[in-house]
Amino acid sequence: MITLPIFDSSGSEVGTYDLDPADFASSVNKQLLHDVVVMYEANMRQGSSRTKSRGEVRGSTRKLYRQKGTGRARAGARQTPVRRGGGHTFAKRPKDWSYRLPKKAIRRATRQALLSKFLDDEVTLLQDLTIPEPRTRHVAGILSALGLAETSGLLVIPSHDDSIWRAARNISNLWVSPAADLTAYKLLHQKQLVLTTETLDLLREGPLKAVPAGVEADDAEATGEEEAA
C-alpha cells in the first residue's frame, strides 16, 4: 500500500491518500516502456526531408568539355554529384516513420508508467485545482508553493479545462493533459506528476484500471499473437 500526502494550493499538507499499486499494474516492464516511447517518438518524426538526384537538377546535360586533350580531369554534365550544385548520389525521399504497437501493449505501458511514478515518489497530489481566472501567475504560484517551479511537470486534470490550459500554456516546463489523453510518453517525459484526488479516483476507476490477473495473461497471449501476425 502506498500512502500519499495531500496538499492544498498553498502547499500545506491537509491529509493522506492510500493507494494500492495493484490498481494499475502488478509490475513495471522497462522493455515495454522503452518500446512504447520509441514508437511515440518515431510517430512524431516529420519524415519530410527531400533532396534532388542528378536527374532532377536543372541544367543542360551537355558534356562540359571534351574527354581528352584539355589537361583537366574528365568531366560529364554539370549535374554530377562531385560538382557543387549537382545532384545527390543517394537522394533523400520523404519517408513515413510511424508505426503502431498493439493497443493492449500501449494501454499496459500507460498503466505501468503511471505506477512507476508512484514507486519513484514522483507524484504530487492536490486536494483540488481551481483558479479564479485564466492567468499564468495562478498556476505558477501553485507550482512554486509545492516546490515544483524548477522541475518539469505533467499536470493531469479530470477533463479538458480551457481556463487551466490557458493559464499553464506559458510555463515552458509544464505539460497539461486530460486524464483520457494520458500516455506513457507524457508520463515518462516529465519528471513530476501533479494530480488532484478527483483525477486519481478517475484513473483508478477508468480505462487505466488494472484488469484481473487472468485477463492480463490472456491479453499478453493475444498481444504476442498480434505481434507474430
Write the layout of secondary structure elements.
Elements lengths: L1 E6 L5 E7 L10 H14 L59 H17 L3 E4 L9 H10 L7 E5 L4 H7 L5 E5 L5 H6 L2 E5 H9 L7 H16 L1
Parallel strand pairs: 1-3, 3-6, 4-5, 4-6
Antiparallel strand pairs: 1-2
Helix pairs in contact: 3-4
User: How many structural domains?
Assistant: 2
Q: In percent, how much strand structure appears in the residues?
A: 5-15%
Summarize the main sheet.
6 strands, mixed
Helical region count?
7
Unreliable parts: 217-229
The pLDDT mean sits at 88
Helix proportion of residues, in percent? 25-40%
Please tell me the CATH architecture of the largest domain by its name: 3-Layer(aba) Sandwich
Strand order of the largest sheet: 2-1-3-6-4-5
Coarse shape = elongated
Give helix and strand order, one letter per element, not per position: EEHHEHEHEHEHH
Structural class: alpha/beta
Q: Kindly provide the radius of gyration, computed on alpha-carbon positions and rounded to a whole number of angstroms.
A: 27 Å
For this structure, what is the CATH class of the largest domain? Alpha Beta
The CATH topology name of the largest domain reads Ribosomal Protein L4, Chain: A
The CATH superfamily of the largest domain is known as: Ribosomal protein L4/L1
Ends distance: 39 Å
Describe the structure.
The chain is of the alpha/beta class. It is built from seven helices and six strands. The protein has two domains: 2-44 and 100-228, Ribosomal Protein L4, Chain: A, CATH 3.40.1370.10; 50-93, no CATH class. 34% of the residues lie in helices and 14% in strands. It has a six-stranded mixed beta sheet with strand order 2-1-3-6-4-5. A hairpin with a 5-residue loop joins strand 1 and strand 2 (13-19). Helix 3 (136-145) packs across helix 4 (162-168). The longest helix is centred in the middle third of the chain and has 17 residues, at 103-119. The radius of gyration is 27 Å and the shape is elongated. The two termini are 39 Å apart. The model is unreliable at 217-229 (pLDDT under 50).
